[in-house]
């Protein structure tokens, strides 16, 4: 499993190409050649960039869902809507499809932020707003999510 660290700013060009930071490339060096999957985020107006091996692990979980239950099919359809395979080109960029750029509202300024084993790709202004909005409730959220377990039990 990959554990990514960092938040980096970059620019998207007119074609939707975005440079992956050298720090992320170094952390992903063992899986760069396998490519990536980019998709719409579930909870935020951003994109999620999965290394292919992480995407395959997610698909193993999703494939265990009973597809004869409507809610499972609805979830799978929404979760995989707009999913695209992307590769890093020779100059270290990925090409984000226009429909996904539009979904995330990405103009020029981009923030790539680690989220454990994936990278979130944000329009910079939307990212700053999401961080500012989350700051207000973060103490309560941290207590709710992490406060009911002993530190030794989190694993």
From TrEMBL:
The keyword Repeat applies. It is found in: Cytoplasm, Nucleoid. One of its GO terms (biological process) is negative regulation of DNA-templated transcription initiation. Its main location: cytoplasm. Residues 7-54, 83-126 form the SpoVT-AbrB domain. Gene3D superfamilies: Transcriptional regulator MraZ domain. The keyword Cytoplasm applies. Pfam families: MraZ (PF02381). GO terms for molecular function: DNA-binding transcription factor activity; transcription cis-regulatory region binding. Forms oligomers. This is Transcriptional regulator MraZ. It comes from Polaribacter filamentus. The lineage of its organism: Bacteria, Pseudomonadati, Bacteroidota, Flavobacteriia, Flavobacteriales.
């Amino acid at each position: 499993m990959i554990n990514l660290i960092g938040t980096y700013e970059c620019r998207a060009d007119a074609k939707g190409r975005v440079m992956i930071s050298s720090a992320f490339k170094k952390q992903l060096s063992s899986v760069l050649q396998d490519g990536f999957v980019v998709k719409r985020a579930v909870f935020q107006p951003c994109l999620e960039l999965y290394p292919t091996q992480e995407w395959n692990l997610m698909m193993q979980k999703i494939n265990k869902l009973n597809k004869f239950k409507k809610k499972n099919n609805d979830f799978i359809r929404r979760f995989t809507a707009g999913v695209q395979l992307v590769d890093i080109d020779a100059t270290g960029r990925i090409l984000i499809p226009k429909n996904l750029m539009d979904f995330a509202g990405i103009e020029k300024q981009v923030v790539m932020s680690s989220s454990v084993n994936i990278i979130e790709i944000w329009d910079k202004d939307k990212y700053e707003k999401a961080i500012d909005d989350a700051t207000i409730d973060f103490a309560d959220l941290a207590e709710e999510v992490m406060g009911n377990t002993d530190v030794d039990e989190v694993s």
